[in-house]
Specification:
The chain is of the alpha/beta class. It is 43% helix and 10% strand. It has 3 domains: 52 residues, no CATH class; 123 residues, FAD/NAD(P)-binding domain (3-Layer(bba) Sandwich); 111 residues, Glutaredoxin (3-Layer(aba) Sandwich). The strands form 3 sheets. A 5-stranded mixed beta sheet has the order 5-9-8-6-7, covered by helices on one side. Bound molecules: flavin-adenine dinucleotide (FAD).
Amino acid sequence: MPHDRYRIVGTIHEQKETDQTISIEEAANILKQRSEHFDMNIHDCSWISVYRSHHRHITTFRYRNRYFLLGDAAHIHSPVGGQGMNTGLQDAHNLAWKLAYLLTHSARDRLLDTYHDERSAVAKTLVNTTDRAFAFLSSVNWITRLVRLFVTPVLLQFVIQPLFTYSRKFRQIVFLRVSQLGITYRSSNIYDYGASAGNFHQTTPQPGDRFPYVIFSPCYYHLILFENQQLTKVNQFVEFIKKEYSNMIQIHDSNEEKIPLQFEGAILIRPDGYIAYRTNVFDIKHFQCYFDQFFLKEMI
Ligand SMILES: Cc1cc2nc3c(=O)[nH]c(=O)nc-3n(C[C@H](O)[C@H](O)[C@H](O)COP(=O)(O)OP(=O)(O)OC[C@H]3O[C@@H](n4cnc5c(N)ncnc54)[C@H](O)[C@@H]3O)c2cc1C
């Protein structure tokens, strides 16, 4: 942590747990017993607390239509990996624009259903992985302890550390996972009905992926136009968007925004920075069918 401070997390005797409190002296004693090979002591403690680790998530993030659960109320797990607060913030980020669009642009109710589709999958994966990690770190089973105390340090030193040092790919995978920037909503119901118009190479960004290159205003959808040969079709498409959706969609040029992505066509970004739709055929009808699934046409 900043300013040379450390966070120490450990298990305490079950009986102590019911007291809901522990003194610094007691914590220091436990630390001394368990770290006999290290010369460690606690001083200048700024915060100490007893907590119980829970592992569960709710089955539906949207309850009786009008209630939305997020943060620890929706999913709770051990602090291993430091993901809890961040996941709650991302729940809020995912839900906020959908509620705002319901109020200001008459989004259809099904847009709100996508909150559950998108965030419950994230919570499920998170609870399962932290559950496994916590079980491994806290188990008193002798085989697990043996692996934890003698095999894991060797693995960390001779496998994980070299991978971190020499493999950019490995660092990237771990970074995207821990920072939660690699989360994708590709399997969300929002993309079931034609969020892609045209043929694309497998490696091009897909609807449901985060679009990391530029931060736009969260009050709008954003259509980004990339280099394209079909000028007449592009112009017709742009004119249509301007005429029909000007209060919801802002239009940008990829060169002006300096977006470092090789792409032919256009990408529509959601207010939360995820890709909503992509096209390289500029089929107006296709786009209209896709978009109007979520918004009442007469209200736009
Ligand atoms: C030891 C520990 C370390 C952690 N470390 C990390 C970390 O490094 N990174 C990370 O991302 N996450 C971490 N977390 C998880 C993180 O703290 C939580 O995920 C996050 O605080 C949840 O935020 P929340 O707003 O959903 O719920 P809470 O923070 O629990 O907020 C809910 C609030 O509602 C109030 N409340 C409850 N009932 C009522 C009521 N009836 N009326 C009015 N108010 C009410 C509560 O008092 C509370 O203030 C850690 C958790 C623990 C226990």
